[in-house]
Amino acid sequence: MEKSMMTGLRKAIGTTKEVIVDSLLTTIADANTHSFVSKSQYHILNIQLWLKPDYIVHKDYPILNKNLTELEKRKLLEKTILNAEITLKLIEKYGIIDGKVIFVIQGWNDESFRYCAKRYADMGVEMFGLGSSIKVNPEDFIKRLHIVREVIGDKAYLHVFGALKPSVIKLTKNMYNSVDTSTPFKAAAMGYVIILEGEKVKRIRVDNISLEDLQIPHPLRIELENVLNEIGQIREGRPPITRLKRVLAALNVYTLRCALR
What we know:
By secondary structure, this protein is an alpha/beta fold. It folds into two domains: 1-181, Alpha-Beta Barrel (TIM Barrel); 182-261, no CATH class. Helices cover 47% and strands 16% of the residues. Strands 1-4-5-6-7-8 form a six-stranded parallel sheet. It has a two-stranded antiparallel sheet with strand order 2-3. Helix 4 (70-94) packs parallel to helix 5, helix 5 runs parallel beside helix 6 and helix 9 packs antiparallel against helix 10. The longest helix has 25 residues, at 70-94. It is globular, with a radius of gyration of 21 Å. The two termini are 35 Å apart. The model is unreliable at 27-31 and 234-239 (pLDDT under 50).
């Protein structure tokens, strides 16, 4: 954390890619009380700015618990919208570029997503994000995308937060501007590679594929072959599984990007 605040998060983690800092840091360890304390939108925004990312996400309250009452859901949604209002005031106060802040649209049904998107649009929000996509079936997710687009318009920037299957990402690629997903890394951790088969995106175990069948860049292919050969040759000790998973993750990211072109 200290290094990130001094050099910026991108430099600290050694990447040239764009970095988004989410708002899930809703609790911070308090060194004085040795406990976790909830932080306000003001504190979260300041921590995000210290990390010097390319984009930051306003503090939202995902509505994922199906056992919540209608009133409890409403309260969470209004807290998310209130934080959006606070963030816009802080943007104006500190001279932050509005186009670098993503405001998360939350909800639990068609009406609530439409309501939240409309509130943001009325506030003058420039960058929107669609949240609460965990365990949402493809049909409902696509319906939410249509609802949000209908409210914010085709020209507004819309980011989709993860939890999507590669096939759904490919199917809806023309409905949003950007997406973040952990699928390539989760698949790699389980020993799977993501492949394109016609218009479909599939996952296959790494020991059930032929490298000749994969359309991947030559340097990445060579690296993958080397790692697989090393694992095959090692009979004692721990194989370089960590390195293999990194290569698989790189391959999966590459394949998913190809699917979105």
